[in-house]
Amino acid sequence: MRRRHVLAGLTAGFSLLAGCNGSTGNNSTGNNSTQSTNGSNTSASGEITATTVATTMAETAQETATQTETQTQTQTATATPTPTQTATSQPTAETTAGGTAAMGTATGSGSLDLSNRETYSSNSYPYTIEYPSDWQVDETDPTEVSFTASDTPSSLTVYLREGAPSSVTLEQATEQFLSGYQQSAGENEMTNETLDRREVTLSNDNRAIFLDLRLSSAESSVSIRQNAVLTLVGDTLYTAASTIPEMVYSSEVGQQVEDMLLSLTVSGDSESTDTV
Fold first, then answer.
1. Which tens digits make up the pLDDT trace of 171-202?
2. Taking the CA of residue 238 as centre, how many other CA atoms within 13 Å lie in the half-sphere pointing to its CB?
3. Separation between Cα atoms, residue 178 and residue 51, nearest integer Å
4. This prediction's pTM
5. Domains of the chain from N-terminus onward
6. Which of 93, 120, 148, 170 has fewest C-beta within 10 Å?
């Protein structure tokens, strides 16, 4: 579920339209800046920084939904015998239960345990994060390091986007992220919900925003849960995000995911401590 950097170029155009809920959105100038409510100019590069991450995450969710549906159909076909039915017969409770059980088996339901973790330390950027010890690590691109499970379409990715102007606050970056996320979800024919949004504090007293997001495919009953932590450190936006099929997303898994994301430790000074 890796992404090519061509996404940045593809999303740059529409990200300028997505804008930020905290800006007026109609006072653009020739240098591609927008006027925020506090009167400061917010560079378009700040919008692109957050929006490209949102676009990548939404597309990852769409791919995960497709993989989940494929696994479910395959497992159901191989594990559930086709009942003999007449033209007027209806599915029985047994066949319905069998299909549900097959869906769980296809995604490793009941076996997703994220409690056994180890710490990843980036060689290119000043951050560390915990991840499930049995997940595979792909650090081919140091700005998008991913950790993936082998038995279920679940993943953790740390995205880095440099070049955020000093005028962009964490709250503005979050609004830009959610705007881009909603637009990308729509383009991928998925509906999205923000189930939780709150401020948290990471180690080194870095402020961050925690998000709990749900995307549902318009063509199937598959839903995907994505949790994310966003923090601005210097001119770099760090986003740690998990992607897990909702059918295996229990309250226990949710707590383990949150613990894992909040383990993100970034060295350096965060943005100013404005109230979110």
1. 999 999 999 999 999 998 889 999 999 999 99
2. 29
3. 8
4. 0.72
5. 6-67+109-266 (3.40.1000.10)
6. 93
